[in-house]
Write a structure and sequence with these properties.
extended, five-stranded mixed sheet, alpha+beta, 19 helices, Nucleotidyltransferase, domain 5
């Protein structure tokens, strides 16, 4: 048996001979085209037919040299299939259907191909032929079949180059995540997991803004986050009891990059971005790495959350044996304080990608005073543009919103009018009502009322829902009582209609016949009846 080394040498020998023949053909044709030899002489030097000779002239390329005239091999070309096209189609379909399972291999595909070929009366290909086609699938395509396009592109797609930025606020990225922790209500009973929306400045890696909430991601979350980006963070930090934390980073983003979630594509957000000359960019579908900076930041923040009591960790496998609800101990306000502290720690920790802390990267550009190109009026207007909105009717007491009353004298001429209002979920002490094409600042009616977060009201609502389950009358009992009350009303209406119909008949046709009265005295049929006197 010939060794691999000899076979390899034989291949090299054949290729060398082919190159020699190609060079000889090239020299002859070149001389012929230069009219150094005649047609007959050329045919004598290249033993071939007239048709083949003209084909060689057609293939001749002076720039490519002799390689253009390498003799083609007879027979089936490399990579050319011997199977019928119908069988190839069956193999392709079977690969797509079977390889979606992460444990299926060539054998499972071949069994599927075999069954379909029998159904279609087609020749059954060998296991080797099917396996060859399975193994020819690229790792990227295989991953797409088994895990989906998003995961495949994230793990295996090429991601050349890097984003080159020259200044802070040039590009920001925004995203949401469910926080991996169960928080408690004010009575220390487990309540649930909050949501986090975060906006990162890509150049400096500064957390430009974030928003913690109980509700699912929505246009409110996005609006509150962007509004907080341009706001002074000191008021919010003071409200949650973190006055000693420095958070000097704020400004208007030039561009906001996000995924394709509907809350990022709302009409109100598009209008606010267009008005303030902010580019709103949605990442291509399935290209998660376009938002890689914010996703890595979220991973970093959740890594710290996993050390807290009550954490749910990142998956059930890691959480196995850990009772998150039983271990939970932090309220929403306590977690808000802890998270604000973690953000401050993050800002003064060296970032591996930029080789300095995010805070230093920001201050290196803006300086210690962080001069903002926006005036106070521009900042206020931009903030209002991005704040979430609602509609309310002005009543004699002012505006009622989220169980709070708001009042200012400017509302007086508009009692009964439905108006658009804007509100800041991070500070509910005032709202803005749109009157005569401008927004009016409307504070609490009770000026002694303390400022609070929108989420504080939500917690109260969630507490009320939980407490209603243990009241002396349950929700089910309340519904049953209401149903009984409704039945009483329906019954009285039916009785009234019946009586009124009878009264109408009497008025129309006279009184009714006397109603037959049955005696209640029992009769003893064993006694002989006494005849009347008339019968005696």
């Amino acid at each position: 048996m010939r060794s691999k080394k000899n076979r390899s040498a034989r291949c090299e020998e054949v290729e060398f001979e082919e190159l020699k023949e190609a060079k000889r053909r090239n020299d002859v044709i070149q001389k012929y085209l230069d009219k150094e030899i005649t047609y007959k002489s050329a045919l004598g030097l290249i033993p071939c037919s007239k048709t083949t000779f003209y084909k060689l002239i057609h293939k001749y390329d002076e720039s490519s040299g002799s390689t253009a005239l390498i003799p083609t091999k007879r027979g089936r070309k490399k990579g050319e299939s011997q199977l019928a096209e119908a069988v190839e189609d069956i193999i392709r379909d079977s690969i797509k259907s079977k390889l979606t399972s992460r444990v299926a291999g060539p054998s499972a595909v071949w069994k599927r191909v075999k069954d379909r070929c029998i159904e279609s009366s087609l020749p059954i290909p060998s296991l080797g032929s099917v396996a060859k086609r399975v193994h020819s699938i690229s790792p990227l395509e295989l991953r797409k079949l088994q895990y989906g396009a998003a995961d495949a592109y994230d793990k295996l797609a090429m991601k050349p180059g890097r984003l080159r930025l020259s200044r802070p606020l040039q590009v920001t990225q925004i995203d949401h995540t469910r926080v991996d922790i169960i928080l408690c209500d004010d009575d220390r009973a487990p309540l649930g997991r909050p949501w986090l929306t975060v906006l990162i400045d890509v150049k400096t890696r500064v957390i430009l803004s974030y928003y913690l909430s109980w509700h699912n991601p929505s246009s409110v979350s996005v609006a509150a986050t962007i509004a907080f980006a341009v706001a002074n963070k000191a008021d919010y930090l003071a409200m949650i009891g973190c006055e000693d934390i420095s958070y000097p980073f704020s400004g208007k983003p030039e561009a906001i990059n996000s995924d394709n979630a509907k809350e990022f594509r709302s009409l109100s957000m598009e209008k606010a971005c267009a008005k303030n000359k902010i580019d709103l960019n949605w990442r291509p579908r399935g290209k998660k790495h376009y938002g890689g900076h914010v996703e890595r930041l979220i991973g970093t923040l959740m890594g710290e959350v996993h050390f807290l009591p009550g954490t749910t960790f990142s998956n059930t496998k890691v959480r196995k044996g850990y009772d998150s609800e039983k271990k939970s101990c932090m309220t929403f306000l306590e977690f808000s304080r802890w998270f604000a502290t973690q953000v401050a720690i993050y800002h003064c920790t060296e970032h591996s990608a930029i080789k300095k802390t995010p805070g230093d990267a920001w201050l290196d550009y803006f300086g210690p005073h962080n001069p903002n190109i926006l005036t106070s009026n521009e900042k206020a207007e931009l903030t209002i543009d991005f704040l979430p909105q609602d509609r309310r009717t002005i009543n004699p007491k002012g505006l009622r919103f989220k169980n709070n009353y708001y009042y200012c004298p400017d509302l007086a001429p508009y009692v009964g009018k439905d108006v658009l209002i804007k509100y800041n979920p991070l500070s509910m002490r005032r709202i803005w009502a749109r009157l005569n094409d401008e927004y009016i600042n409307v504070p609490f009616s009770d000026l002694a009322q303390n400022d609070n977060l929108l989420e504080s009201a939500r917690i109260g609502g969630l507490n009320q829902q939980e407490k209603s389950k243990t009241r002396w009358v349950t929700e089910e009992g309340r519904v049953k009582l209401k149903k009984n009350a409704d039945e009483i009303v329906v019954s009285s209406q039916a009785a009234t209609r019946k009586e009124r119909r009878q009264q109408a008949i009497i008025r129309e046709h006279g009184p009714r016949l006397p109603v037959e009265v049955h005696s209640t005295v029992s009769i003893d049929y064993s006694k002989k009846p006494t005849p009347f006197n008339s019968e005696g």
